[in-house]
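ingest -> validate -> predict -> emit
validate: passed (alphabet ok, no gaps, 206 aa)
predict: started
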Amino acid sequence: MLEKEISYALPTPAGAYYAVSTAESDPPRRLLRLLLSQTESPRLSPEKLPQGCDRECFERIQRMGWLQWLAEPLTVMEQPLETILPELLAPLSDGGKVLLADAQGFYIGSNGFPHETAEELAALSADFLGLQQRYRGVLQGNLHLNAEAWGIVDAGGHTRLGVWPLHIGKHIFALVMTGIPHFNHPDFVQLVWTLMTRYAPASIVL
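emit:
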C-alpha cells in the first residue's frame, strides 16, 4: 500500500465512465470528477483525502477498479479540440465511426462520418437527450432503468447506433457511435479528462 500512497492517481476508463455517465452525485463520483478536472494527475493518499470522500468511499473506488496508479504524473492534452478529437474518438468504436455533439445538436468533433451525416446525427442526439430528460421519471423512477444511453437496435437486439450522454459539469455532451463501443479504451479517459478540464475545471487543487 505504501507504493500506492505515494503514487499519482487517474481514473480508469471504468472510473471515467462512472463519473460522467449521469448527473447524479455521490462521494466516489465527486472524487473521480475532482481528479478529472485537474490538468495534471495529482498525488493521492488514503490518509489525506479531499473533503467529501472518506476512507469507505476511497476503498469502494479501489474495490471497483475506478483508479489507476502512475509512477509519474500525466498532463492533460492541451491542443485545440478540433485537432485532437478525431484521434481520441476513433478507438471508441470497433468501426471507428464516432462523434461528439453538444446538447444543442452541433457536433464538436467527428471521425468516420461524412460532414452532412455528422450534422444530422448531432441533431438527432440532441433529440435523444431531450427525450431522456423528458421521460426520466418513468424510465428511472418507475422502471428503474438507471442507464441513460439510447440506441437503435436490430431484430436481434444489437445496437446499430448508440447515443451516450456525458455529463461534464453543467454541460451535457452526446457521444454517438455505430458498432460495438469500446469505453474501456485509454482514450476514453483522455476524452473525459480533456472535456472536464475545459468545461468543468476544479477550484480545488489536490
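The chain has a mean pLDDT of 92.
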